[in-house]
Amino acid sequence: MRLDIITIFPEYFAPLGISLIGKAVQRGDISVGVHDLRSWAHDTHRTVDDTPFGGGPGMVMRPEPWGEALDAILAAATGAQPGTGVVGGAEPGPCVSGGAEPGPGVTRAAETGGTGPQPAGPQLIVPTPAGAPFGQAIAAQLAEAEHLIFACGRYEGIDARVVEYARSLIPVRELSIGDYVLPGGEPAVLVMIEAICRLLPGVLGNAESASDDSFGAGVGAMHGLVEGPTYTRPRVWRGREVPDVLLSGNHAAIARWRRDEALLRTARTRPDLAARLPRGALSARDRQVLSDAGFAVMGEDVAH
Ligand code: JD8
């Protein structure tokens, strides 16, 4: 998978050089380009913002640098010369991952040559509080993409014509990671990349598997539920014991206990999730566990 990130804070993505994603980049499973938007602002102060038409607080990101950045990155992705079909002459800016120097695996897509088929069909992902909710299902979809370009806005946002222009070239998804206001798109892009890349083959260590993720589109035991509590050594910590069933070696009993805990925690902390558990997701035993805990299970629905 190829990831390109356009931002005025390239150093914000140094963390992509470490942990699971860092290792995947080292292995060449993922290639990352982090591009400084100011590379395409050509005035002395490399200005990327201006006052909003119609007045109002704050500043808006200028369209010109964005247009040139998209042109250059799309040209690099398709090996086309910037300006052929896509306007803008400037070469993609310096790629940054981890430290300042371009890291291994950080090359122009056209030159990847290494890992798997050339990324085809870039998609633009634009984080915005006005976007569609980003969730596990969308993460799973985007994990199938070969090339994702992330546009990190700041200030009051990006001039709306940039997304319009991008839509004339490639698929664009405006996504939000939650109903709270962030100062810019960078934190949302880090969240999305972490959620997407852990679903890529080989990224998760073999001990971990995404197959029975919470919220997941998977069919695992925890489908649609939040995870229950987990424990590790010591068996007793500050006078607090680990539930006996987990030490029993009885895998069926352990699986049952874990499902019961996940059901109760979901009904308690995420009634919204409990309410949209798919039909048939609750066995008679599940409903018994919930009603014993005071959660009314009407037909299929769970309510307290
Ligand atoms: C992109 C600029 C800041 C937002 C004026 C504060 C996502 N779940 C989310 N919350 N906030 C964002 C987000 C915020 C952004 C940008 C994403 C670009 N801002 C703006 C509008 C109000 N300032 C987000 N995903």
Compact overview of the structure:
The protein is an alpha/beta fold and 304 residues long. It has helices at 19-27, 63-78, 136-142, 161-167, 186-197, 251-269, 271-275, 284-292; strands at 2-7, 31-36, 49-50, 60-61, 123-133, 147-151, 172-176, 236-237, 240-241, 296-298, 301-303. The radius of gyration is 23 Å and the shape is elongated.
Explain what the structure shows:
The chain is α/β, with parallel strands linked by helices and 304 residues long. The protein has 8 helices and 11 strands. Helix 2 runs parallel beside helix 4. The relative contact order is 0.12. Mean pLDDT is 86; it is low at 86-113.
Topology:
Elements: E1 2-7, H1 19-27, E2 31-36, E3 49-50, E4 60-61, H2 63-78, E5 123-133, H3 136-142, E6 147-151, H4 161-167, E7 172-176, H5 186-197, E8 236-237, E9 240-241, H6 251-269, H7 271-275, H8 284-292, E10 296-298, E11 301-303
Parallel strand pairs: 1-2, 1-6, 5-6, 5-7
Antiparallel strand pairs: 3-4, 8-9, 10-11
Helix pairs in contact: 2-4
The protein binds ligand JD8.
Ligand JD8 binds next to strand 5.
